[in-house]
Amino acid sequence: MKKFSNSIVNGKEHLFVISGLVISYLLIIIFVLFLFNALSEREELRLQMEAEQAFNSVFYYIKDDPVKANDELQSKGILGVGVYSYTGTKVLSLGDVPNILSKKIVDNFSTWGSKTTGGTATYNYDNDTIEYIRFINRLTVLWDVIDPTLVKLSDFKAPTVSFPDVLYIIMNGTSYKAMKTRLQMMQILAIFVITILFIFVFRIYRNNRKYRIKLDSQRNLVNLGQAARTLTHEIKNPLSSINIQLAILRVKVNPSYRSNLEIIQSEVDRIKILTDKVSEFLHNPEGIPSEFELVEFIQDIISKFPSKIALYSYSTFYVKMDKLRARSVFENLIKNAIESGNNPEVEVIIKKGNKTKTVEIEVKDRGDGLPEGVKDKIYDPFFTTKTTGSGIGLSITKQFVTARGGSLNLFSREGGGTVAQVILPTSANHPHRSR
Question: Is residue 24 part of a domain?
Fold first, then answer.
């Protein structure tokens, strides 16, 4: 149980749930197919049973009350009865039957005669009829062209038809066809409904998962905000004390040392400005957006780094974003790439995004890459793989990018290293142009 819980925590919940849903869906579909196959077989048995009943009824009247044979044909939905030789040639008939049986039936006479003692009923899809064939004992039939009747052997002295002869009964098959059609439609409808329910359940789970991810992200931001407020408060308190002591020192120390005090004062002021910015960033991640050309903006950032960084872009892209926050985003990503290894070979690629009106910025390196199992934690506040890192850089970076409707993704680079991918919407007022 503990191992299962850990797998859920490590991000395998999605795999377990989707696998469970797919397996359940397949099992239900198999059950539905099995059920309707059983119903179809039941209809086949019913077809055979009705054909047997029709044969027994007709055969009874042929032997005992031939005069009622025509009435029985109509009441049982029988279109015709015929007696055929082994060659398939009609010897005697009553009702509408073919003069010669089909070659398929004739070819199977010997097989049927040796393997079955009952009759065989089949559905003819060409004319929507049920054909019943059975081998019979001696039967005497009188055929009158004007008034066809079946009479007893004692009343008829014509030549008789002797065993083995074949009795062929053709019945109306519209009800059987209608039932088979209904079963097929019900099967299709059942599979369709199950598929819709599966999609519905999957969408509920997906939306729920997105909500939980968003909730976790918001919880992380809350934790980050609380930590930042605590740090800001804890930093500002000693800064106030330092400012007081600096004021005292300005009065008491030798004027020749006042330049040193000014250095201390400037550093204190810088720390105070930094804490104010962190607090402002967390309370207002969007800042004051303004339009600017992205390639020149990133080129200016790259020029501030002493390391050699390659920049590739063949178009101009305008984005609308707070410049301070944009600078923080790309400075942090480039800095991480430079610190990723001894020879990271950092390069920045700016290109048109896959989605309409987006720009894609990739910061690539050949450093040590992402450690195994940290992909889901790298955006957590205060989580870091560095010995000297604070762990808030990527959290703030992701917050700034998301606030402008963009996305930040980190993934391993083929051949080693890491790719930090930022996708931002481009400005509608300045469509990108090739350089």
Answer: no
Model pLDDT, residue 293: 94
Residue 84 neighbours by CB under 8 Å, 6+ apart = 90, 91, 101, 165, 166, 168
* CB distance 377 to 395 below 8 Å: no
Stretch (H or E) spanning 123? strand 120-124
* pLDDT value of position 208: 87
Residues 279 and 317 in one domain: no
The verdict on residue 314 lying in a domain is yes
CB-based contact 367:418 (threshold 8 Å): yes
Distance in Å from the first CA to the final CA of the chain:
58
Residue 257's alpha-carbon distances to 67, 254, 365, in angstroms, are 139, 6, 46
Closest CA to 51 of 124, 133, 115: 133
pLDDT exceeds cutoff 80 at 254 = yes
Which of 241, 256, 283 is the C-terminal boundary of a domain? 283
Amino acid at 168: Y
> Tell me, what DSSP letter sits at residue 89?
B
User: Measured between alpha carbons, how far is residue 20 from residues 16, 212, 216 in Å?
Assistant: 6, 20, 24
Give yes or no for a contact between 112 and 133, defined as CB atoms under 8 angstroms apart. yes
**pLDDT, mean over the chain:** 77
pTM of the predicted protein model:
0.46
Inside any domain, residue 351: yes
Residues 232, 263: one domain?
Answer: yes
Which residue, 227, 249, 283, sits at the end of a domain?
A: 283
Range of the domain at 234: 213-283
The Cα–Cα gap between 158 and 409 comes to: 97
Q: Which residues does residue 78 pair with via DSSP β-bridges, in sequence order? A: 171
Residue with tokens 């987006």: 358
Mean pLDDT across the stretch 90-100? 80
User: Please, which residues bridge with residue 95 across strands?
Assistant: 80
- Looking at the fold, whether 251 and 300 belong to one and the same domain comes out as no
The predicted structure's pLDDT at residue 14: 76
